[in-house]
Design a protein that fits this description.
5-stranded antiparallel β-sheet; alpha+beta; Ribosomal Protein S4 Delta 41, Chain A, domain 1; 9 helices; globular; single chain; Structural Genomics Hypothetical 15.5 Kd Protein In mrcA-pckA Intergenic Region, Chain A; 39% helix
Length: 211
């Protein structure tokens, strides 16, 4: 499967917003967004070369921002959109809810990994179980009531403990339950838009794909 292998800081600079692709390291002064707050490329600092962004361009940038935040390829992202259109409710909110229910994202939200890319790697390396079964598929969609537990042999991993320490005293995501002592979490309910901390205008994505 294809994957992005270049510097992730370029993605943040291109979208002109911090996507936190490196987790809490993006809060440091060494973040590229702090040192070079302009578009990547040799003409990035030349604002005079920038044309007025069209309506399509605004919608495209919003889609790219969300897609890159969750680390998905275009085909994967579009399939989530198609699934969201077949669900009851608002399509844009359904899309974000589906993305938040991915196993790699839940592992990240629970604080078991410093970033979504790290969470994806931990899942692929079989460090977690879902409802007692080893699950190594990052795109696995959790359902309300599903429990995610760190495997017994993986409970000594420094990356998990350091991530939990950096995450703070507890999870502030209302649709998740975290038990740090037992290294387990639970999806309490399907996330609602008001409880999803991702900053975006999901309606623009719907308008883009509706053309």
């Amino acid at each position: 499967m294809a994957r992005y292998t270049e510097a992730v800081c370029k993605l943040c600079r291109r979208e002109n917003v911090k996507l936190f692709l490196k987790g809490r390291r993006c809060l440091s002064d060494k973040c590229a967004m702090e040192r070079r707050a302009y578009f990547p490329g040799q003409h990035g600092q030349n604002q005079q070369r920038r044309r007025k962004v069209s309506e399509y361009g605004i919608q495209l940038r919003e889609k790219q921002k969300v897609r890159r935040t969750y680390g998905l390829l275009e085909r994967q992202f579009f399939l989530y959109y198609l699934k969201a259109t077949k669900m009851r409710g608002i399509t844009g909110e359904n899309l974000l809810s589906l993305l938040e229910r991915r196993l790699d994202n839940v592992v990240y939200r629970l604080g078991f990994a410093p970033s979504r890319s790290a969470a994806r790697q931990l899942v692929r390396h079989r460090h977690f179980t879902v409802n007692g079964r080893i699950t190594d598929i990052p795109s696995y969609l959790l359902r309300p009531g599903d429990t995610v537990v760190v495997r017994e042999k993986s409970r000594s991993l420094d990356i998990i403990h350091s991530a939990l320490k950096d995450a703070g005293p507890g999870s502030d995501i209302p649709w998740l339950r975290l038990d740090k002592a037992r290294l387990e979490g639970e999806l309490l309910e399907a996330p609602k838009r008001a409880d999803i901390p991702t900053v975006c205008q999901e309606q623009l994505i719907v308008e883009l794909y509706s053309k």
